[in-house]
Specification:
β1 and β2 form a beta hairpin. The strands form 4 sheets. The chain has a 7-stranded mixed beta sheet, with helices on both faces. It has a 4-stranded mixed beta sheet with strand order 1-2-3-15. A 4-stranded antiparallel beta sheet has the order 13-14-17-16, covered by helices on one side. The radius of gyration is 21 Å and the shape is globular. Helix content is 38%, strand content 18%. It has 12 helices and 17 strands. The protein is α/β, with parallel strands linked by helices. The structure holds pyridoxal-5'-phosphate. Residues 39, 95-97, 100, 129-131, 181, 185-186, 214, 216-217, 242 line the site of pyridoxal-5'-phosphate.
């Protein structure tokens, strides 16, 4: 018998009832320090007063009108996002995968609109994750997500992670774009070196193809800049964001230059819910906080603190922690033991973390986390590592 909820997730047997800042409470009142933030979604933590106010205020006015009419808050959010980025225009979606679909369609349509109808192929990288729709599983190229779902959507050429020469070799007459996450998330928190991002920008310009960034996980303040690519001093032609932009309300966006968006005329794309008044109220409220003076600087300071303390933990637990890597408050602990063991040990210490590829445990605290909570998390990870070390010693002794 199948469960009423389609069993596509291996869920932990616990549920959270409420949250406050970086802390989430289970239905039986246990407090957990939340360093997963709903997989980088709860950027301002749980129940942030400004978000709660914006959502409840909007909920009493109007929830949904469709995109048949003007949505002034969407116009405003688009203006603010373009004002704060490389982009000239924005399409709002309800999720990351939909923002990706818009980006992929836009890149293909760009070449089509310019009369280059055969340019539709997109170069992607091993270890990438771009979503679970048919096109985005093809873009991600991971067999475990493709298996059994019929023919892989055509038009994606995958090369090894951050391999410039491989990209060069694969660019051909049909190449439309290069697509990359500036920091791979699901793949195991692998930052793409700034030099490499700059090299991809040069290659794209040289060949008249587009550069697409998936900043769904690494964007919106996570790395200490509003967008992760800002660290490299270059910009993409199109970018997908989601997760943190809604602070927990389902919202994604595809941002583009006017040049790259030239094929997307009336009727070429749409979404019933995309950019609805509730989502726009949340998106604007998130930006109110993130664009406040000093917010991103504080993220950078806290990130430095967390990274320094984790580096010390790595030295203290060399049998458990192989490496600590990442950017800003997007950190991966590469494990010498199974990552799920460390994750479980952290859970026992009432610290929420998230597993990722390459045997990594991800730390993605809300951007409003404070230094006491960082100290607290470090002490819990330390205890988790100690418990694992003593388990290993006991096992060795009894073996
Ligand atoms: C980098 C990246 N791209 C795309 C997605 C897909 O986003 P969504 O699950 O909102 O469709 C994710 C989700 O984890 C992601 O991390």
């Amino acid at each position: 018998m199948i469960s009423p909820l389609l069993p596509t997730y291996a869920r932990v047997n616990m549920a959270f009832e409420r949250g406050e800042g970086a802390v989430a409470y289970t239905s039986d009142g246990e407090a957990y320090l939340d360093f997963g933030a709903g997989i980088a979604v709860n950027s301002l933590g749980h129940a942030h007063p400004h978000l709660v106010e914006a959502l409840t205020e909007q909920a009493q006015k109007i929830w949904h009108t469709s995109n048949l009419y003007q949505i002034p808050a969407g116009q405003q959010l688009a203006e603010r996002l373009t004002g704060a980025s490389f982009a000239d225009t924005v399409f709002f979606t309800n999720s990351g995968a939909e923002a990706m679909e818009c980006m992929i369609k836009m890149a293909r349509k760009y070449h089509y609109a310019r009369g280059d109808k055969d340019r539709y192929r997109i170069i992607t990288f091993e270890g990438a994750f771009h979503g679970r729709t048919l096109a985005t599983i093809a873009a991600g190229g991971q067999e475990k997500y493709l298996e059994g779902f019929g023919p892989k959507v055509e038009g994606f050429d995958q090369v090894p992670f951050a391999d410039h020469d491989a990209v060069k070799a694969v660019i051909g007459d049909q190449t439309a774009a290069i697509l990359i996450e500036p920091v791979q998330g699901e793949g195991g928190i692998r930052p793409v070196p700034a030099k490499c991002l700059r090299g991809l920008r040069e290659l794209a310009d040289e060949h008249g193809i587009l550069l697409l960034f998936d900043e769904i996980q690494c964007g919106m303040g996570r790395t200490g800049k509003l967008f992760a690519h800002e660290w490299a001093g270059i910009a993409p032609d199109i970018m997908a964001v989601a997760k943190a932009i809604g602070g927990g309300f389902p919202l994604g966006a595809c941002l583009a230059t006017s040049e790259a968006a030239q094929g997307m005329t009336a009727g070429t794309h749409g979404s019933t819910y995309g950019g609805n008044p509730l989502a726009m109220a949340c998106g604007n409220a998130v930006l109110d906080v993130m664009l406040e003076d000093g917010f991103l600087e504080a993220v950078r300071d806290k990130a430095l603190l967390l990274q320094q303390k984790l580096a010390r933990l790595k030295d203290e637990h060399p049998k458990i922690i192989e490496d600590v890597r990442g950017s800003g408050l997007m950190i991966g602990i590469k494990c010498r033991i199974a990552n799920t063991e460390l994750l479980q040990a952290c859970l026992k210490q009432k610290l929420l973390t998230i597993a990722a590829g390459d045997n990594v445990v991800r730390l993605l605290p809300p951007l409003i986390v404070n230094s006491e909570q960082i100290d607290d998390a470090i002490s819990r990870i330390d205890k988790a590592c100690q418990s694992l070390s003593s388990d290993a010693t006991e096992n060795a002794a009894s073996g």
